[in-house]
Amino acid sequence: MDRLAEYMAAYARLLGETSRVHFQGVETGSAILVAAVDEPAGPKVYDRVHQLQRGSGSRDAVKAFEELDEMLRRDNATGELRGNGGAVVLPFPGRSRPEPLVFGPIRQEGSLEGQVIRVGGKDDSVPVHLRDETIIYSGLNATPDLARKIAQHLLGPTLRVYGSGTWYREGDGSWVLKSFKINDFEVLDDDPLEDVVAALRKVKGSNWNEVSDPVRALLEDRHGSGDAN
Length: 229
Known about the structure:
This protein has about 230 residues and is an alpha+beta fold. The protein has helices spanning about 1-15, 40-55, 60-75, 145-150, 195-200, 215-225; strands at about 20-25, 30-35, 80, 90, 105-120, 125-130, 135-140, 160-170, 175-185.
């Protein structure tokens, strides 16, 4: 039932116009979901689906299609969206879709930043979880001694951890972290830039009072600036 609910939610996102598209029932067969569209929303739903059929469509519609197709692939199934007359409007290749190319593993020294949300484990390598806004890094590990030091900052300030990571590159170009061995870390200052600038201006002999836009200057200094020829 949980999986069926996931399919229903993704199906609703695919059709859009969620306030005017209603679940009508499940017909006999392998999870045949039937949706009813209120008359005023019919043209919009029709256009949304046929844009996908032509290989275009809005970003959220394409995302919903890809989500549904990936769910079918993982469940070793295929699917199709049919109109009222029974004709196939939109096929979902699912399991018949070629497996995406994956490159790796690629090992590289680097760093990650985030808030510590979990430290735990009894092995020689202790799992550490970091959260950087909406990204959760869960493949991190540290020695027990280092993990104890990191645990002191649980749900506290942002940390930057250093170490060696193992990455995979998906077929869509995105990078996925498989594991990361932490060998050191530092606590980052979470103070707002405005507070940092105010503190700098109070330093005797500082020329920050002469800078018209110090926040912009700090950002440019951090990320680099200059014109490309």
